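Hi support team,

I submitted a single chain yesterday and got back a structure, but I'm not sure I'm reading the token output correctly. Could someone confirm the output below corresponds to the sequence I sent? I've pasted both exactly as they appear in my results page.

Thanks,
R.
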Amino acid sequence: MDSPAVTLMERLGLSDDELCEVLAVDPIAVITNELDHRPELQILLALTAEAADRVGATTLRGWLRRNGPTGVPLEHLKARDFQAFEDDLIVLAERGYVVRRA
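Hi R., thanks for writing in. Yes, this is the structure output for that exact sequence:
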């Protein structure tokens, strides 16, 4: 059975290092599933579950690394700016995943 952290990592296509950075934990905490002190994990799981249902997991993973109207969602996560990430998800829900030509 996967841990909640692994579920988030797979849903967003995060590397091990990215997951640890987003959650501000070391790899041992992820491996041992000692993340009860990280309330943002459950919040991120709930927010991203809705987005994955709406646009699909593959699209969500691609969207995470693309520049949107307010920046790159992954950069917001890595900066632990969860409000900005939530705003990114709101834009995704309202506009969908918009692909533009360069």
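A quick pointer for reading it: The mean pLDDT is 89. Let us know if anything else looks off.

Best,
Support desk
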